[in-house]
Design a protein that fits this description.
Distance between the termini: 51 Å
Structural class: alpha+beta
Radius of gyration: 22 Å
Strand content: 5-15%
Helix content: 25-40%
Strand order of the largest sheet: 3-5-4
């Protein structure tokens, strides 16, 4: 396992003896030196899911056999019988992890059934490693609880375990702290934002049919908290949104999560009412625009209709030539382009008030 270094100026350790969760303190300029990256869940981001620009393996691995004469386009060769590797793909053709899996019937499926790309930090900076494993290596998702201790401790712990993006507090943790809380593949702890890829391999599994459902629920219920933390410039800005009843106190982790869920529910109700006013439920326009993915059936859940409506509203906004300039923010991990339609629409409203849109 490559040697990890602590991010300069960052510390990590228990805030008080009564808490089992550690807490992170980040340096003041944390994240400013890192370039633009995408959303933590995006496959082409710098979070460890990106397949672009990986290093070359130290030794030439065994390649999967390929037919001598084939009319099909040549596939990117993928090594087998290894627990980790590096994959080089053209920058003009971003691929998903699943699309890199070999389809040759000569490749032993037990040796190469799953792969996951993780980001690690060593003496030379950050690099990506591709883990090759099978479904039997995937352990059940741990029952992470961030409600222990204070709200500050819970949010700091979630932020630390969420992503291995360059500059994230993940890199202030020791391997023991990561492995003690998270699932691991070949000795590599898997951050929460990669559970979608890891446990997605078990989706539809006959032996463990509900594993991905359990993991997905834990990811979705905590993602709003991490997103709000990452979008804020610092802890002072973040906790100003969640004051407690006592002076200088803040809400608990559960209360923060409930507050964010309530805000999104209120927004969904407003956008749903606006959507059906503009596109009546019995109209042809609604039937055409609000269909289920991969089906001709209309959407029926109000929150899903609201979400689709927001996507329609921002479709033209994203085509603006100044979109990347106006619809961005500087968060904990550096400069980011907005992805959530709610944030894009809120920024658009601000620009219109200021006469800039």
């Amino acid at each position: 396992m490559p040697h990890r270094e602590m991010v300069p100026g960052a510390t990590f350790g228990p805030v008080n003896p009564g808490s089992s969760w550690p807490s992170a303190r980040l340096p003041p300029s944390h994240g400013a030196q890192y370039p633009l990256a995408a959303d933590p869940f995006a496959r082409d981001s710098m979070t460890g899911v990106s397949l672009l620009g990986s290093a070359t393996a130290a030794s030439a691995p065994l390649m999967a056999p390929e037919p001598a004469h084939s009319a099909m386009p040549r596939r990117t060769p993928v090594p087998v019988n290894q627990t980790s590797m590096h994959v080089d793909v053209p920058a003009s053709k971003p691929l998903s992890a699943r699309s890199l899996m070999p389809t040759s019937s000569n490749t032993p499926p037990s040796n190469l059934s799953c792969m996951l790309i993780v980001t690690v930090k060593d003496g030379n900076g950050y690099k990506q490693e591709t883990l090759v494993f099978n479904k039997d290596d995937i352990t059940d998702p741990p029952n992470l609880c961030f409600s222990q201790g204070t709200g500050r401790e819970g949010v700091a712990a979630l932020a630390a375990f969420w992503t291995a993006a360059p500059g994230a507090p993940w890199h202030t943790l020791t391997d023991a702290e990561k492995l003690d809380r998270l699932p691991a593949i070949k000795g590599h702890a898997i951050p929460i934002n990669l559970w979608k890829d890891l446990y997605g391999y078990l989706s539809g599994s006959k032996d463990r049919p509900r594993t991905w459902e359990t993991a997905g629920r834990r990811v979705l219920e905590n993602k709003p908290v991490f997103d709000e933390w990452e979008r804020s410039a610092n802890d002072e800005v973040f906790w100003a949104q969640f004051p407690g009843k006592m002076p200088k106190s803040v809400l608990s982790f559960v209360q923060v999560r409930q507050t964010l869920q309530a805000q999104r529910t209120t927004r969904d109700r407003r956008d749903y009412a606006e959507a059906i006013l503009r596109y009546p439920l019995d109209s042809t326009e609604f039937a055409n625009l609000f269909k289920q993915v991969g089906s001709s059936k209309p959407l029926t859940k109000s929150s899903t209709i609201a979400e689709r409506y927001r996507e329609l509203l921002v479709k033209d906004v994203k085509k603006r030539s100044d979109f990347n300039h106006l619809f961005c923010y500087h968060g904990r991990l550096g400069r980011r382009i907005m992805k959530d339609p709610v944030h894009i629409l809120d920024r658009l409203a601000e620009l219109r008030r200021d006469g800039l849109a």
